[in-house]
Amino acid sequence: MRRYATIKDIAKLVGVSHTTVHRALNDKPRISQSTKDRIISIARELNYQPNVLAQSLVLGRTKTLGLVITTIVNPLYPELAKGIEDAARFLGYNIILCCTNFDISLEKQYIDMLRSRGVDGIIFTSAHIHDPNITRLVKDQFPLILVNRRVYGDPLMDRIDYVVAENAKGGFLAVEHLIKMGHKMIGVISGPPDSSAAVERLEGARKAFIEYGLNPAELLVLEGDFLKPSGYEAARKFLSLRDAPSAIFSVNDYMALGALEGILDSGFRIPEDIALVGFNDIEFTSLKAIELTTIGQKKYEMGSIAVHTLIDKIEGRDGDKVRQITLEPELIVRRSCGYQLRGYTVPHPEALLEQEI
Amino acid sequence: MRRYATIKDIAKLVGVSHTTVHRALNDKPRISQSTKDRIISIARELNYQPNVLAQSLVLGRTKTLGLVITTIVNPLYPELAKGIEDAARFLGYNIILCCTNFDISLEKQYIDMLRSRGVDGIIFTSAHIHDPNITRLVKDQFPLILVNRRVYGDPLMDRIDYVVAENAKGGFLAVEHLIKMGHKMIGVISGPPDSSAAVERLEGARKAFIEYGLNPAELLVLEGDFLKPSGYEAARKFLSLRDAPSAIFSVNDYMALGALEGILDSGFRIPEDIALVGFNDIEFTSLKAIELTTIGQKKYEMGSIAVHTLIDKIEGRDGDKVRQITLEPELIVRRSCGYQLRGYTVPHPEALLEQEI
DNA sequence: TCAGGGTGAGTTAACGTTAACGCAAAGAGG
DNA sequence: CCTCTTTGCGTTAACGTTAACTCACCCTGA
Predict the structure, then answer these.
(1) Nucleotide whose C1' lies closest to the alpha carbon of residue A57
(2) A244, A203, A24, A49: which is closest to B113 by C-alpha?
């Protein structure tokens, strides 16, 4: 493989020192216009591209970010990743993709690898509520930002940047909506208890139960793992109960789509027999064939904000200011909750359906 | 940010030269066991991680691959990316994610960036049929592999590795299936004419038309861009024709889901009024609410094979052997084609639905 | 006893870039 | 005319690693 020309190659050709070439190509002072022109034209001829590795080594920065996610097959992450990738490119950064498959030891391996590769910062969408890996990084003052996740109980937790939706409110909105439509038996498909998103959404659901005078002990909860099959299993379990719920809230859409499958396989109709609400508003939930009522969050924006915030920190803007950003979730009413069966009128449906990115 | 300890730090602490540290940490000969033990224990204490940048600079390899895709929001790509990421991790490589948004000049920018970052090879899922960027790389003997795409008419085309499904056969199977169920007016939503996948699938569709004695001039074709909205638009256009087709074949599932939407919005039912067939078997097409008949290809495997093939080449196995791998597509019959309405029996439905990864 | 080889190191250069420093020549200012 | 500054370079070291080379010492065997 033919390698790129280096500044030394150019220097030899032009008959100057490599420093002079460096000055010419980087608009540094202390070089005459004529030498500069000669160098630039030769460089162009040779299709010179700076060796970013060497630059990184000497400058101590790589203009690269790590993106740590659980699994790219959950459609939430491509949508987030798009916001992240676009913003990173805009700011001149690259992304190294790391999928942990929910394995915290793999997460650690990835972190070690990213650090030894000298990435300037890491974006985590996979953080656990208690995450020793994150704690370690924060202690080392390594630039990072959490997306769609928070960390609790860590003595350093108020020093950790994050961008999240107000998950508790989202959970509240989802279950409030179901209660308002007359449901009293509601099943919640929750997520892994080490995920703040899962915990907070469930908490919001509980809060709605209490606020509307229902007994939170009667809120049925089955734990899923954020993946589709677990939604399927949970739905089937709910529907095999003697006192089966009449509505199901899944704390993410991916499981909700599994639940949808499970409900149909159990011989029930949506929404006539069972109402279903999800969370995330992933793209396919809006399909006419699906029409899943869900909680929307601004995913593209979350990704974009995360990158901008992280890079501000990396490049020393904002100083030590901690940035903990919470975005508003919104209820997106579609067919699966059965609002149309109950004479429920959607307030400003257009406004609700519209989602800027 | 506290930086990692280097071999020189360790050398100073132990009182040896940095070369000795290198020998200790890399199992090189010419070092005594006792020195080795001392060094290793100190290294562990300091949580030593080698600086991969420095290694890459001197070794001339980065153990990093570029992954160039059009847009991660097309669900085909996360499924491919999973196969790629898993295989890369297994082989000790990392992935830099690049989304070109179908922009060939952005593709070029990404390539330049990847090369100046010293990636060892690039995986393209975004190659155009005539792609000067690819030609350039091949001329430079830069390791690359195309996935789900081929390049034509390039004098170097038989030197370019690729992994694809036999797209023409897939297109043939899709349309043959529709013809067998009695459809004579078939609309095809094709893709960008600079994508080999789109061209070959359309070609396969034409071949089926001819082989079954239909007039290929009567095959209705509308060009989409592989994205959902274009599928929607195409379907609506088809259905507004005086001689509207009774079946639609979309050359990818993402557009097919748009078409599904368009068909329903036009007031038609699937499959009673319109049969629909897609291509790719992306995860959500199997949902009970969708049940899209489609052409399956082994996406995870494609990604995995691509990585193994590319790395074989990078690491000098296989020598100069060109690897052009074609996988079998398969017809996956589901509800949307209306087979159940026509008394069509699916041969070995279990075998068809099962897909190993 | 001494050549030959193995052992356990250290020294040095290299990868390609950036940057601190040095230095001669030209120009400016009194 | 002499000093002082500016201009236009070159030299050198550094980033952290790998690897080629060197070298002293000890052991072996004839």
Answers:
(1) D15
(2) A49
